[in-house]
Amino acid sequence: MRTRAKICGITRCQDIQAVVDSGADAIGLVFYPPSPRSVTIAQAVELAQATPAYVQLVGLFVNSSLEEIQATLQAVPLDVLQFHGDESPEHCQAIAKATGRRWYKAIQVKADMDLAAVVQRYQACGASAMLLDAWHPTLKGGTGHAFDWTKFPKLDIPLILAGGLTPDNVTHAIEITRAYAVDVSGGVESAKGIKDRQLIEHFMQGVHRGSAK
Questions:
Q1: CATH for 87
Q2: Active site residues
Q3: pLDDT, tens digit, for every residue of 152-166?
Q4: How is the chain split among helix, strand and coil, in percent rounded to 5?
């Protein structure tokens, strides 16, 4: 099975077409105002309208309230919720129940953490997958840094690899981790929030090479 791929931090409709043409599986929209890749609800509506069927729309939220997420969902047909803040398993579960959406949680990997135990807590509350990202003291994703991929666990839940991925290293990353999916943002940009068609194409070629080995 080919490793799945999500291109996150989309801000422009023309970048949607580049993602679709590349064969990526999902598009990530960031609803976190401090991020340079954040979009307003109005922007997200336009981006959703430009996204064809069979390409998933994932909404990234950081410590958002149920009311904020519900307001977004009233306008934007997100398929999946990505919790990227300090949300507890129970908080994620409650929002998922109230909104009727599948979800997954991003975890910033620290050297001394019991990663399997953390993942299992969210899995027990209904997570569809878990995203493993590089730890940073202040940033919530989009750091451009990678963690030690040799420490990538093998667990009975789909695991998504993020953090520091580029067209040049994604094949190697997949070979090492055998991740269910990879998630890239800055690694396929010419500037923050501005995706580069050629880099997206090269990234997806790397995904295919890694999946085939």
A1: 3.20.20.70
A2: 8, 133
A3: 889 999 999 999 999
A4: 40, 25, 40
Supply the range of the domain harboring residue 110.
Answer: 4-212
Residue with tokens 């396929």: 188
Phi-psi region of 9 (alpha: psi -120 to 50; beta: other; left: phi over 0): left
- Total domains present in the chain: 1
Q: 57-89, pLDDT tens digit by residue? A: 999 999 999 999 999 999 999 999 999 999 999
173, 161 in Cβ contact below 8 A? yes
List Cβ neighbours of 85 (8 Å cut-off, separation of 6 or more).
61, 62, 63, 64, 140
* pLDDT tens digits for range 1-39: 899 999 999 999 999 999 999 999 999 999 999 999 999
Contact in structure between 181 and 5 (CB atoms under 8 Å)? yes
Beta pairing partners, 57: 27
Tokens of 144: 């451009």
- Residue with tokens 């949680």, as numbered in its chain: 105
The pair of structure tokens assigned to 154 is: 């093998």
Tokens standing for residue 46: 């336009």
Tokens (6 digits) for 158: 């789909």
Going by C-alpha positions, the residue among 83, 121, 90, 87 that lies closest to residue 105 is 83
pLDDT tens readout for residues 114-143: 999 999 999 999 999 999 998 655 555 555
